Amino acid sequence: MLIARVTGTLVASRKEPTLDGLKLLVVRGCDVHGDPTGAPLVAADAVGAGVGEVVLVAAGSSARQTEATKDRPVDAVIMAIVDALDVGAETTFKK
Question: Which CATH architecture group holds 2-10+22-94?
Answer without folding.
Answer: Beta Barrel (2.40)
